[in-house]
Design goal:
alpha/beta; binds adenosine-5'-diphosphate; 12 strands; binds magnesium ion; globular; Rossmann fold; 4-stranded antiparallel beta sheet
């Protein structure tokens, strides 16, 4: 479906070393407009590090990133945001003691001037927050609720809603469903479908392999800081993905990579 489109994201030869560990070793990643890519791998495989390179939070030792054909170099998440790349981090980075609307508008609250003084425009902020949530189908009764009083799924939705409100071309989500109840997982998967249907390219990091087959177009598997395999969801199965995640031997062989003896390099 997205095969004929040019790349939205092309990461090539990305390497990162935290002495003495080579956390990323010559990793590539591509993403098409509106595509949902599942990024999987065991703990420590390098998924979060690779995503943070794309979101500007980590500067790689080597490698290049192109977005819509343009070479970019991110020194900070602000640089990535300016290029319309957003990431929802595992810890969500929300302010618990601030209300829903305040979190959605953190750092860019609408203001109005009265008699030359600038005031927070609360009415507008809540109205715009409500519209933002409605647009994404996020169900939260009151935008005045403090985030600390929300469920895990609602908190996740707020973090995704905030990221989506920056009108990203690329949205990265790092294990968004890890701590959620079943119905909440469904809501997050619906959100992913909604943003990708609008043309946003999504990277979904998850351990819930069944979810990959519900929302992803393609799956990329990492193992110990390297790419080991890439599959369209239509041409793979949970069993194969599990094998690729845990089995270097099998994975290396099927990817045609070196090291097919299974001996760690
Ligand atoms: N700031 C850091 N300093 C040293 N080692 C790190 C740092 N961040 C990550 N690592 C190591 O890099 C490896 C990959 O981590 P990560 O990208 O978080 O993996 P994943 O998200 O796939 O679980 C792990 O071995 C981790 O301990
Ligand atoms: Mg991680």
């Amino acid at each position: 479906m997205t095969d004929s489109l040019p790349y939205r994201v092309r990461m090539t030869g990305i390497s990162k070393r935290y002495h003495p560990i080579q956390v990323l070793d010559d990793v590539s990643l591509t993403l098409k407009p509106g595509e949902v890519l599942g990024l999987v791998g065991d703990n420590g495989a390098g998924k979060s590090t690779l995503s943070k390179v794309l979101s500007g939070a980590i500067i790689p030792d080597a490698g290049s990133i192109e977005i819509d054909g343009e070479v970019v170099s991110f020194a900070s998440p602000a640089d990535a945001r300016a290029a319309r790349v957003e990431m929802v981090y595992q810890d969500l980075s929300l302010c618990d003691t601030v209300d829903v609307a305040g979190n959605l508008f953190l750092g860019r609250e609408p203001r109005r001037r009265i008699a030359g003084l600038s005031f927070l425009d609360k009415a507008r902020m809540h109205a715009e927050a409500r519209a933002m949530l409605d647009r994404l189908g996020i169900v939260i009764a009151d935008t005045r609720l403090k985030v600390e009083n929300l469920s895990g799924g609602q908190r996740q939705s707020i973090a995704i809603g905030r990221a989506a409100s920056f009108d990203p071309r690329v949205l990265i989500m790092d294990e968004p469903t890890a701590a959620l109840a079943v119905a909440e997982v469904e809501a997050v998967l619906d959100l992913i479908r909604a943003v990708s249907a609008r043309g946003v390219s999504v990277i979904l990091i998850t351990h819930r392999l069944q979810d990959l087959f519900l929302v992803c177009d393609r799956i990329q598997v990492m193992y110990e800081g390297r790419n080991v395999a890439e599959r369209h969801v239509s041409e793979t199965s949970i069993e194969e993905v599990v094998n690729l995640i845990v089995g270097r031997k099998f994975a290396a062989r099927s990817a045609g990579a070196a090291g097919s003896t299974g001996v760690p390099a």
